[in-house]
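Submission checklist for the structure archive. All mandatory fields must be present; incomplete records are returned to the submitter.

[x] Identifier: Restriction enzyme, Res subunit
[x] Organism: Alteromonas macleodii
[x] Residue count: 450
[x] Sequence attached
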Amino acid sequence: MTGRYQAYPEYKPSPIDWLEEIPSQWKTTRLKYLGNAIIGLTYSPDEVVEKESEDATLVLRSSNVQNGKISLLDNVYVSKDIPEKLRTKKDDILICSRNGSRALIGKNARIDDSSTNMTFGAFMTIFRSKYNEYLSHVFNSKLFEYQSGSFLTSTINQLTTGNLNSFEIPFPPEAELEPINNFLNHETAKIDKLISKQEKLIELLKEKRQAVISHAVTKGLRPDSEMKDSGIEWLGQVPKHWTVKKIKHFGAVIGGYAFKSSDFTDNGYPVIKISNVSHLEIDWSDRSYLPPDFAQRHKEYIAPKGSLVFAMTRPVISGGIKVFRMKDDSNPLINQRVGFINIENEDISFFILQSSLSSAFKAQFINNMTVTNQPNISGEGIGDICIAVPPQNELIEINLALKNIGSLYSKLIENCIEQIGLMKERKTALISAAVTGKIDVRNFKEEVNE
């Protein structure tokens, strides 16, 4: 990563075994000598309240850390006495220290003006230090990724405060912190701007895809079709020869079984939990299993191939409704907070899945949700959603068109995602080079008219 950047004039051997050398004037130190690691708040479900409740405090969790920044789109509030040290302060670094998905452990973001005076959950850790502008770069470098990964094993899936405090990092003289920060803030901001453009393009592509699909599943492909009033506010006009049916016409939506946490095993029979249900796909990054005999004892909770599987708690994300279609014969058991409907007709199953992308389906879905401590939808709420169903021959024709549309937009979106991945790699490499002293940026000056 030297390239256009020069190296330091002199280096010395590094006492850190994974780093060969550091600039001669740098030292190495453990994080505990630079600040404090603080584990988050423990709270019970009874202490979760509505946002509008008196004394409600927002609890920052893993979902509030998105792409290296604080996101306040998925929030939980508690009514509880919060110790002052567990209230967020500007420039604190919020770190995901425990999670079902190992890939999320270590993700972090700096607390900004919009996220101060909140608290953070017990699966999160705050690192508080006067050096956090610099350390936030360190925490997003390869050296942090390497050390945090070294503490994760098949039995330990967390980053404790003891682990964090013991991290050893190269550290420049204080006089060099500001120029390094200025360089990284400037260069990473340019990369972030390019990433943002790609992300906006992805959103535009998704909106266009949704509009095209919405038209296909409610109006069809034939512009000369005679229309009729569907009788459903959200559906509006539909082709006269189509039939309006509720989802429950095709089968019952079955809510999952409340398996106990003590039931789960390291291997065995697959089970789908709420964490596995993503938008239009299954997420196996957090795999869970039950003893094999559970499949026989609870076979009514098995989702066969062709089933549509819905998240029933917090069932809507920015990308849409969390639902996917079982494409294989794994026949998993379904856990609580998840529901499924078994549809043997593959054409109908695929058409309903595509219909879930339409504005009409989403509007009904949201209308049928209830909100207590968190948004939920019942099996009956899903079953009462109405869709317009074409005759079988036209259904097959529309499904083929939908597959082609999906393939086209997926390729365009995948290209954007690939570009974002390359830019993120470039960003991480640049940060890593600067905070390990591989490049000398002390004389960095912002270029004019970049």
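[x] Structure attached
Curator remark: The mean pLDDT is 92. The domain at 221-389 is CATH 3.90.220.20 (Adenine-n6-DNA-methyltransferase TaqI; Chain A, domain 2).
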